[in-house]
Amino acid sequence: MHTLIVTAHPDPGSLTHAIAQTIAESLTASTPQYTAELADLTAEGFDPRFNLADHQLFLKQSPPPADVAAEQRRLDRADALVLVYPIYWWSFPALLKGWIDRVFAQGWAYQDNNDGKVTKKLQRLQVHLVAIGGADQGTYQRHGYGAAMNTQIDHGIFDYCGAPVRSSTVLLPSEGDYARAHLETAQAIGASIFASQS
Known about the structure:
The chain is of the alpha/beta class and 198 residues long. Helices cover 44% and strands 20% of the residues. The strands form 2 sheets. It has a 5-stranded parallel sheet with strand order 2-1-3-6-7, sandwiched between helices. Helix 1 packs parallel to helix 8.
C-alpha cells in the first residue's frame, strides 16, 4: 500500500514539513510493506497557474500537459493521498490549490457526461487532510471556519471526484507545547492510514 504525502510550504524547516515527515515515518514503521512518497510542491517547483493547455484539457481538446500527466501518474500509484498544509485565508495555500486545479482534471478525476451527470473517477483513492492553523479553536467555532473548509475542500473537491475523505484534521495552537502535541497527532495519523486494511 502506497501513500503520497503532499506539502506546500516555502520553509523546509516548518512545522508543516515536520508533520508530513512524521506521518511518513509513522506510516512506514507500522507495517513494512507500506510505502510513502513525500511531494514538496515548493521544492519541486510545481507551476500552479491554470493555463491555456489546462483549459484545452478541460474542454477535451487536448491531452494533459506533461507536468500534469506526471502528477496524475504519481497519484495513480498511490492508494492514499495525504495533504499537509498551513491554512492561508481559511483555505489551502495558492500553490496547493493550483496543484488541485490543474491535476484533478476533467477526464482523470471526474468526467462530465453529455447527460449532465458527473462520473466520479477517484473512488479508489482515500484522502487524509491535515491543516495547520494559527487561530485557536474558539475562533474557528465562532466564525464557522471549520464548516466552511469542510464544505469547500472535503465536499467541494474530493466528494466531487468520489475520493473518500477518511480523516480531516485541523491542528490549532493550544496550551503548552502545541508543536509537540501536533507531532504526536501526526504520528497517530500515519499509523492509522491503512489501519482498517491491516
